[in-house]
Amino acid sequence: MLEDLTTAALSPTSWPTAYPKGYAVVDVETTGLARDDRIISAAVYRLDARGEVEDHWYTMVNPERDPGPVWIHGLTSEALEGAPLFQDIAEEFTARLAGRVLVAHNAVFDWQMIAREYARAQREAPVRQRLCTIALSKELGLPLPNHKLESLAAHFGVVQRRAHHALDDARVLAEAFRPSLKAAAASGVRLPLHECRPLTEWSDRPASPRIGQQAGYGGYRPGSWRPSRKRPACPYPNPGRYQPGGRLKQGMRVAFSGDTSVERDLLEDRATEAGLHVATSLSRLTSLLVTNDPDSGTSKVVKARQFGTPVVDEAAFGQLLADVEPASEG
């Protein structure tokens, strides 16, 4: 077995010193996949530096709204009625996450959901780095047919008992992460760690009307983490690329990638109000990419490198927004 080989290959002194000192393997179930959806259950398995389980914790959470796709997660309004609110479990959740790398399957989704709940509760999530097990399986070159959790579990012989139940999904992931971590350490693989920036501002907007409990998750488009919002068309022509050291100009096309400390929609609203064109994708016409992680492998960052698109971080973009040059007349 891979785990036996990697365990035998690693002596107490050969473990990579740069690896984290502890992990919090997390799974959350939610009312849907959009920015205004809520967490309805959460589970955390705490692991030590070498992936050994220390303890685990599970709670349901009252979302104060319709629970969404009950046929997926199995949590009805009646089951959630007496559950604690997120602000009631935030302190315990914090204790479980503090000082550890958050590990999840499709980690950016779990992180965004958690960050939004903390922001609603006017608290800050104690997470500074996350690790996605999908990204780790790619780094290890695991021969998986797809990137579903069930495929990763099957590869390591882990038996799922209750799919889409937060506690069992977290258990399965913890059991699959342990041999993955040992394999990475034995091969000297650099772990795909990404910075997490807690939200510093949050604005709940009215939820988009649900379109019935149809295919998809809670009536939202599969794969969408927030309802689409139609912004008014930018009235100014694109003046071209942003010149580093210069000013932004009305009409410039701006794209965003990765975590931001100000909630993404608020940043996009400010850009729109300043007369900029908020682009949902990156092309040769994009004037500027805003990202706090320019070394990430997201499609926008990769394309920005290919096209030579200028890149700034969120703080620099905030300063640029304070002095946007008016569009040329005529």
Structural account:
It comes from Streptomyces lomondensis. Pfam families: BRCT (PF00533), RNase_T (PF00929). Residues 204-247 are annotated as: Disordered. Residues 246-324 form the BRCT domain. The chain is α/β, with parallel strands linked by helices. It folds into two domains: 20-195, Ribonuclease H-like superfamily/Ribonuclease H (Nucleotidyltransferase, domain 5, 2-Layer Sandwich); 228-330, Rossmann fold (3-Layer(aba) Sandwich). It has helices at residues 2-9, 70-73, 77-81, 86-97, 107-120, 133-140, 149-155, 166-187, 264-273, 299-307, 314-321, and strands at 22-30, 39-48, 53-60, 101-104, 129-132, 193-195, 253-257, 277-279, 288-291, 311-312. The strands form two sheets. It has a six-stranded mixed β-sheet with strand order 3-2-1-4-5-6, sandwiched between helices. Strands 8-7-9-10 form a four-stranded parallel β-sheet, with helices on both faces. β7, α9 and β8 form a beta-alpha-beta unit. α1 crosses α8 and α6 (133-140) packs parallel to α8 (166-187). The protein is globular. Mean pLDDT is 87; it is low at 1-9 and 207-228.
Instruction: Estimate the strand proportion.
Output: 15-25%
- CATH fold call of the largest domain: Nucleotidyltransferase, domain 5
Which ranges are low-confidence, i.e. pLDDT below 50, for 5 or more consecutive residues? 1-9, 207-228
- The CATH superfamily name of the largest domain is Ribonuclease H-like superfamily/Ribonuclease H
**First-last Cα distance:** 71 Å
Shape: globular
Q: What kind of sheet is the major sheet?
A: 6 strands, mixed
> How would you state the average pLDDT, rounded?
87
**Which sequence of SSEs, written as H and E, runs from N to C?**
HEEEHHHEHEHHHEEHEEHEH
